[in-house]
Write a structure and sequence with these properties.
two-stranded antiparallel sheet; 16% strand; 80 residues; 4 helices; alpha+beta
Length: 80
């Protein structure tokens, strides 16, 4: 679901939601794509399990990496 609210002449506020399954898909994609860049002691680069990365760095790291899917969703809204 998405909404677009006109704030000023050339500004709008976009609000959208992503279902949980799609968000998890984006998180997994981000993990797979970036796991080679994340260093965890005791593991070779790219070999640390996702749960361990989340425990050590927090889900915020993967959430930031998940921006690709957010950008795709934003493009769809803008093109509506």
């Amino acid at each position: 679901m998405s909404t677009m609210e006109k704030i000023e002449k050339n500004k709008v506020k976009l609000t959208f939601s992503v279902d949980a399954a799609r968000f998890e898909e984006g998180m997994q994609y981000s993990y797979n794509k970036n796991k080679g860049n994340i260093a965890v002691q005791g593991f070779r680069k790219g070999k640390a399990p996702r749960k361990l990365i989340e425990a050590q760095y927090g889900k915020a790291v993967l959430t930031l990496l998940c921006q690709k899917h957010t950008k795709q969703q934003l493009r769809k809204i803008i093109l509506m």
